[in-house]
Task: inverse folding
């Protein structure tokens, strides 16, 4: 008995699919079979639909039966609707989805991609990204090129949602890859201790914050001692701003920066040659300043990527946040 019920449900499913695709004869055949196997199934409404359609569209049984010589052409004619049905089912995206993908792929400027002005706020960027990402996400938009369009939208969001990268983009019109070759000549911002920036996250280390607060309270304002301590930094910046100067280091290995060094907190950076050790001995103030800048830069990269991952996780696009994990580990070192 259970076998008949399973066969009846299977026939009912086939009959419904045939009815949706417009094949009334096949639908009628399998629906009658389902009712015969299990009379309790709700099939009468479906059969009534077929009967009402039959009044407007005569079935093939009512048409004159062709002679044997006409059979090949009939087979070709009946095969055409099936092929059209297959094509329509394969096209699971709308014209609107195709147009929005093309429009995004055609645009290069991040503001144009998100449909924003240069004076937009971070909230505007987030709202626009949330709206566009739902329209072009590959899971929701099956149009060709949707994945590339989604990547463009995500890249624009990642750049414009961060104040620093947005400011650089406004100045240069070009995005800087997060793990970029950054010039060491960039002035170090005062007060950018990792603990202070990291405190906005729920997993910020309390010990690190206390140490930073104690250092801030003991500073007592600008004095002559502070000026003496800043002199090595100012000297390095002055040398780096000379026209012929190149970046002292990069965070990624690339020619000619192929010699790897590691800061006391485990951050790798790359310099041109071993001559760096002679110019900046490991116990010198200049070396300490450079490596502190390396760690600040590395922290900023992790923090930016962690923010991006947290937002994507909140919207259900990802589950893992590897950069946030790296940020936690980096905080524990301090």
Result:
């Amino acid at each position: 008995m259970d076998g008949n019920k399973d066969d009846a449900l299977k026939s009912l499913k086939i009959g419904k699919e045939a009815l949706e695709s417009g094949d009334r004869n096949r639908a009628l055949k399998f629906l009658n079979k389902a009712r015969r196997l299990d009379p309790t199934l709700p099939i009468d409404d479906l059969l009534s639909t077929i009967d009402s359609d039959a009044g407007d569209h005569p079935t093939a049984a009512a048409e004159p039966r062709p002679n044997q010589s006409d059979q090949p052409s009939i087979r070709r004619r009946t095969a055409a609707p099936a092929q059209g049905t297959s094509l329509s089912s394969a096209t699971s995206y709308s014209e609107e989805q195709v147009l929005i993908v093309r429009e995004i792929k055609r645009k290069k400027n991040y503001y144009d991609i998100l449909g924003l002005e240069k004076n937009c706020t971070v909230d505007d960027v987030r709202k626009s990204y949330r709206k566009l990402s739902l329209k072009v996400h590959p899971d929701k938009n099956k149009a060709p090129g949707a994945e590339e369009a989604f990547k463009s939208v995500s890249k624009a969001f990642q750049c414009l949602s961060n104040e620093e990268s947005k400011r650089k983009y406004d100045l240069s019109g070009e995005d800087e890859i997060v793990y970029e070759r950054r010039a060491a000549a960039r002035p170090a911002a005062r007060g950018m201790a990792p603990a202070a920036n990291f405190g906005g996250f729920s997993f910020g280390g309390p010990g690190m914050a206390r140490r930073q607060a104690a250092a801030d309270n003991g500073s007592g304002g600008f004095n002559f001692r502070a000026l003496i301590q800043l002199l090595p930094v100012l000297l390095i910046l002055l040398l780096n701003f000379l026209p012929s100067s190149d970046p002292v280091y990069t965070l990624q290995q690339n020619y000619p920066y192929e010699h790897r060094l590691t800061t006391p907190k485990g951050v790798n950076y790359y310099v041109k040659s071993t001559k760096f050790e002679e110019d900046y001995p490991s116990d010198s103030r200049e070396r300490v300043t450079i490596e502190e800048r390396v760690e600040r830069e590395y922290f900023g990269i992790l923090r930016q990527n962690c923010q991006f991952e947290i937002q994507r996780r909140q919207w259900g696009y990802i589950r893992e946040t590897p950069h946030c994990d790296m940020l936690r580990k980096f905080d524990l070192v301090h």
